[in-house]
Amino acid sequence: MEYAAIIVFAITTCVTPGPNNTLIMASGLNYGVRRSLPHFTGIMLGFPVMVVAVGLGIAGLFQQFPALHVVLKLVGVAYLSYLAYKIASAEISAVNETKGKPFSFIQAAAFQWVNPKAWVLAVGATVTFTVVSDSYIFQVLTIAFIFMLFGAPCVMLWLWFGASLKSILQKPGTVRTFNISMAVLLMGSLLPVFSELYIQFTG
Rounded CA gap, 106 and 7, in Å? Predict the structure, then answer.
């Protein structure tokens, strides 16, 4: 295995904007680092589990039943659109703390299965960096571990950045503007998925 290539792939894909990073940054601002740790942990354990599951057979299931993949994309887009609405409309108190609760560990881990970027990364990594051999399972587990090890600081950077903005964005109105911006960014990350679905249904 090309470990250096996998590490570079993991870092570059985990540090770039996407649904996970957008949501964890918004959580950092609205709830702080400590309250957002279950959300962070859910991402860092949930995605590697997804990589293992995809590498060990789910990708083959999609090849046999392409419609299942389309249905999953539709569910993912619908759920992410709902999350964008929840972020944009979150009630802000006068002391600059969002009312409500951050993602739990289970919610964040389960979210990976409706996250289009997570699917692209999981399938792309296992297809690109594995070869069919007796060590295939070990290869898949190694990829999952690399994503967990090198992805954690990348996602934590977004969480920390969101939390650090709390001291800057003191007014509830400013926090509202930030949340709306995050909702727009989250919807923007779905544009490639919307485009792909449009082509599938109209082509």
Answer: 26
18-54: pLDDT as tens digits: 889 999 999 998 899 999 999 999 999 999 999 999 8
Q: H helices within the chain, ranges in order?
A: 3-15, 19-53, 59-64, 66-88, 105-111, 116-128, 136-164, 172-188, 191-202
Size (the chain), residues: 203
Evaluate if residue 160 carries a pLDDT over 70: yes
End-to-end CA distance of the chain: 38
Query: In this structure, are residues 9 and 144 in contact, taking their beta carbons and an 8 Å threshold?
Result: no
How many Å apart are CA 88 and CA 50, to the nearest integer?
28
Asked if residues 105 and 38 have their Cβ atoms less than 8 Å apart, the reply is: yes
Report the domain count for the chain.
Answer: 1
Q: Is 103 left (phi over 0), alpha (psi -120 to 50) or beta?
A: beta
Structural domain including 103 reads 3-202
